[in-house]
Amino acid sequence: MNASDVQTPSFLVSPLAPGFGALVAATALSGLPEPAEIMALTSQYGTLLLRGFPFDFDAFVAFTDRCCSSFSKYVGGGIRFRALNRDSMGAEGTVMTTTGSTQAFPIPLHGEMYYQKIRPDVLWFFCQRAPAEHGQTTLADGRLIFEQFSAETKNILRSRRLCYIRQLAPDDWATSFMTEDVGELKRICDENELRLEMRPDRSVRIEYVAPAVYATDDHREAFINSSILLWEFERALLSGAAVQVLGASAPDRPPLVVRWEDGSEISEPLMREVEAAAEPFTVRVNWQPGDLVLVDNRKIMHGRRKTVGNDRQILVRLGNLS
Ligand SMILES: [Fe+2]
User: Fold this and answer.
1) Mean pLDDT of 153-164
2) How far is the CA of 11 from the centre of ligand 1 (A)?
3) Rounded CA gap, 174 and 185, in Å?
4) End-to-end CA distance of the chain
């Protein structure tokens, strides 16, 4: 459903882009919106940009606390590597920086934490400091992307599952899973349905098999997963392009890769078809200070454009609804 202009006493709702999401703009007299109203709009539109409300850090934390039952500390986060890691910014580690203190690289569209079973229902992004230029967050509806594929591609994506594979040295799994205890690592892997192989040198191989396409609550199919991001990240590392941007922060080899369930690589033509289908439906959010973006991680993918300079400060919370 598109957001047609709806006037309420405290905010105005209009489409974020044609046929996509909603911009919830405060009216001159607005205080903060009611959490229940915002969550109802989220289930209706999938993603919201809240603009013009008096959010600061404390108000952001208090408001999101009222909307979600719990928050992730990013345990098992797939790309937690040196300058690519997230920093904790408060609220017992549930408010984090977005991926990377270095932001001079784009992040392709992805669903958050689709490489494990336990992943957030919704994502909250809060703009403390907007970039002077570039650095837009990107958003795209996985349902619309799936509709663009050829019948043959739809069949491939419905019938074949993905396999996310991590190969991590001891320090790296300790960072990702936030524990140095092997027993705790096993427990986390079990609850996430991750297949864990521990090697004599304490390095690990961890696999997760999952669909590329998910049924949504409105009985549609959404292309939402982490394949584009990981496919592009692996190529950037192997080609040397990542080292040019990340320098010493670039891992020697990809810490997390995506394959088909049988171990074969996803072909370049297929991935290019996916990217081409997504491009016309990708919406860019030009951040303003105090903006809050809410994303339904069960159907909407997100990413980031390359940032110029170091003045971008976007905080994130990964929320659960039940
Ligand atoms: Fe993300």
Assistant:
1) 97
2) 28
3) 8
4) 24
Q: The tokens of 286 are what?
A: 């030009």
- Does residue 93 contact residue 72 with C-beta atoms inside 8 Å? no
Q: How far is the CA of 44 from the centre of ligand 1 (A)?
A: 22
Under 8 Å between Cβ of 94 and 317: yes
Q: How confident is the model at residue 315 (pLDDT cuts 50, 70, 90)?
A: very high
Around ion ligand 1, residues with a beta carbon closer than 5 Å are: 112
- The closest of 187, 210, 212, 207 to 197, measured between CA atoms, is 207
pLDDT in tens, 210-232: 999 999 999 999 999 999 999 99
Question: Ligand 1 centre from 64 Cα, in Å?
Answer: 18
- ∠27-31-32 over CA atoms, to 5°? 105
**Domain annotation for the chain: domains and CATH numbers:** 80-119+132-285 (3.60.130.10)
pLDDT, tens digit (0-9, with 9 covering 90-100), for 171-193: 999 999 999 999 999 999 999 99
* The pTM of the whole model exceeds 0.90: yes
Q: How far is the CA of 318 from the centre of ligand 1 (A)?
A: 10
Q: Per the structure block, which two tokens stand in for 309?
A: 């300079």
